[in-house]
Each structure stands twice: as structure tokens, then as C-alpha cells.
């Protein structure tokens, strides 16, 4: 197996594992934008906490690949929600909002996962008001 195949497999596995965690968190959701954003943040917290517990610190070389894949999944999730919420909005505007929010959410959650504090609940409650204007929550 070539190294590019290994990286593609790793990227696929990261995406699938995160999507499974996201689907589990979304189960039973009422579908409101704020609740979906909150559940997304908790899924990210869960995923990164789980990943950190299974990966050794010297394996941080894979962090950029993981971060890129997670940003992509989060962006698509947010973009889908924005399209439903604002069907008349320009495609470029929705894509920009989804990109900005996904980078902000992923960056903040990665930083949180490295520090381990505050609790996931407090972290999520502090992030929601910050991304709210971009997502029009």
C-alpha cells in the first residue's frame, strides 16, 4: 500500500468516525438551528476527547489531516443547515458563512481539547454566542 493510500484511508476513517458520532449526537434532535449547533459542538468535543485518549502525543503529525477532514465535515453539515434555513440566500454567502463557522468551531474545539478545561458544557455555552451571528442562530 502506498503512503498516499494510507493517508486516504486514514482521512476516510476519521470522517466516518466523526460522522457516526455526529449522527449519534443528532439523534432525537428537534431540529432547531441553535440545538443543532450545540449538538455539533458536543459531537466535536466527544470526538476530539476520544481521539486524544487513543492517540499518543508523538502521533500529532496526523493532526493537520484530521483537522482538515473535520473542518470539511463540519462545513458541509453547516452548509446543509444554512441552505434549509435561508433558501433564498446567495450560494456564495452561505458557503462563506459555513466556512467561517467551521474554521472557528474546529479551531476553538481543538484548542479546548488540548487544554481540557473548562468542561464541555461550559465550553459549548461560551462558543454558541460567538458563532451565532455567523449562522444567524
Textual characterization of the structure:
With about 140 residues, this protein is mainly alpha-helical. The chain has a single domain, classed as Tetracycline Repressor, domain 2, CATH 1.10.357. The protein contains five helices and no strands. It has helices at about 5-25, 35-55, 65-85, 90-115, 120-135.
Task: Please provide a brief summary of the model.
With 137 residues, the protein is mostly helical.
Radius of gyration: 15 Å
Structural class: mainly alpha
Per the CATH scheme, the topology name is: Tetracycline Repressor, domain 2
* DSSP summary, beta strand count: 0
Which CATH-level-2 architecture?
Orthogonal Bundle
pLDDT averaged residue by residue: 88
Largest sheet: none
* Number of helices in the DSSP assignment: 5
End-to-end Cα distance:
45 Å
Question: In percent terms, what proportion of residues is strand?
Answer: under 5%
Q: Categorize the overall geometry.
A: globular
Kindly give the count of domains.
1
Instruction: Return the CATH class.
Output: Mainly Alpha
User: What ranges have pLDDT less than 50 throughout 5 or more consecutive residues?
Assistant: none
- Helical percentage: over 70%
Q: Any key phrases for this structure?
A:
0% strand, Tetracycline Repressor, domain 2, 137 residues, globular, single chain, mainly alpha, 80% helix
Describe the secondary-structure layout:
Layout: H1 3-26, H2 33-54, H3 63-85, H4 91-115, H5 120-135
Helix pairs in contact: 1-2, 1-3, 2-4, 2-5, 3-4, 4-5
